[in-house]
Amino acid sequence: MITGKTKLLGVIGYPVEHSLSPVMHNAAIKAINNQQNLIDYVYLPFPIKPENLKTAIAGFSAIGIQGFNITIPHKQTILPLLSKVSDLAQAVGAVNTVYQIDKGWEGTNTDVEGFLSPLKTYNWDWHQKVALILGNGGASRAVVAGCAQLGCAEIHVIGRSQEKLAAFRQSWINSPLPVSLKIHKWDEMSRLVSQADLLVNTTPIGMYPNIEQSPIDEKVFDLLSPGAIVYDLIYIPNPTKFLQQALVRGAIAIDGLEMLVQQGAAALELWLQKSVPVDIMRYSLRQHLGLND
């Protein structure tokens, strides 16, 4: 039951109606309450247009919101509005989680932790592996940082705009992370796919409702090494056509649902300062998407 004492958490973006974060966060909060009856929180989506971001953040302070997640298009534009930014978020150049501190708001990035979580289950010598990242938007920044933390031998980023690719590479030059990027135009895809041990889609190509699309065509996918890991940050549909293409070629497929769960769990632990039921967060999302048996 929501009362005048209920504390607010949330996610900001535009649009944000599609976000599944309220599903998993509120399921976790309910589970913790059922076990301990110690917290009184609710997690809500807040649609905020880019031109209203500064006003909204000031309003959040005024009404005492405890913390919030950030999705497109605010992950980078929020940086100057924060009192403090974690070293990791500074290195990534993007914030996805914000929490209260004595003098305002501090931003951090749990997307990197979320991205890495399913990869850590594979006992690979990452120092011998080549990563190919499709796309050079905001989502790819956490993936680049994650690949750098893994220690990948090579990190390749492929995009469609040479100008944006150059700016993307420039933005990592002074990073405290050991990032050594190679950037490529989209027409180099065939050569790069054949070299990739880890292939990650950070683009929205193939996301619902465009479920028949894939960022890579069939002939190029035939060049993929069997046993490579193919990772799609998209989680609707499940699996995407991109992952279906990977599976029929003997690749290991990872969808974006686990990244969503793990980054969310890390954020909720920051806000509540207690461990959270990750299994319940995962189950609630799978149930919502009709993926549970």
TrEMBL record:
Query: What is an annotated GO biological process for this record, any one?
Result: shikimate metabolic process
Reactions performed catalytically: shikimate + NADP(+) = 3-dehydroshikimate + NADPH + H(+)
**Binding positions for shikimate per the UniProt entry:** S19, L20, S21, T71, N96, D111, Y235, Q263
Which Pfam families would you find in this protein's record? SDH_C (PF18317), Shikimate_dh_N (PF08501)
SDH C-terminal domain ranges (all copies): 256-282
Task: Domain (Shikimate dehydrogenase substrate binding N-terminal): give its ranges.
Answer: 11-98
Active site, UniProt feature? K75
Q: What is the purpose of this protein?
A: Involved in the biosynthesis of the chorismate, which leads to the biosynthesis of aromatic amino acids. Catalyzes the reversible NADPH linked reduction of 3-dehydroshikimate (DHSA) to yield shikimate (SA).
The name on file for this protein is Shikimate dehydrogenase (NADP(+))
- Which organism is this protein's natural source? Okeania hirsuta
